[in-house]
Amino acid sequence: MTRSDSAIFAQLDAVRSLTVRQLEDLTPLQGDLIPSGFRNSIRWNAGHLVAVLERFAFKAPALPSPLPASFRTQFDFGSSPASWMDQDEPVPALEELLELLREQPGRVQGALAGRLDEPVEPYTTSTGILLTTPREFLSLALYHEGLHMSVIKLYRRLLGL
Known about the structure:
DinB-like domain-containing protein, DinB/YfiT-like, mainly alpha, Four Helix Bundle (Hemerythrin (Met), subunit A), DinB-like, 2 strands, globular, two-stranded antiparallel ribbon, 161 residues
């Protein structure tokens, strides 16, 4: 593994550890609270982080993912806890999401080590960013995780947690 590969995987571990620390002391009830004026909960944000990294790390290079297809409908862009009651699949509990958040970086590294610069099916984000390699997808995933970690911290503050 190159030094550059090691660096991005180390960053993924570090950022994910910070996210997990924001979630570890919450009760399931606290994870499901939605601050006034917002549409998602802390649990939704945790699941969204799992879903997006999974899609970025595994879908583009056409690698298998162990996550059920329901993760997309439950946690992808535009979804919200309001739609969870209309689904047949159970929504993962906060503790389940925490476990997925903890194990996912190692699984991503195992799948992508030595493959970060391989060309994959190009993807243009809703903001116009073109992604063409797993490294580019992971770089954007790090930025994305930072945004949602900030949202989780904001929700905690607004909810007095």
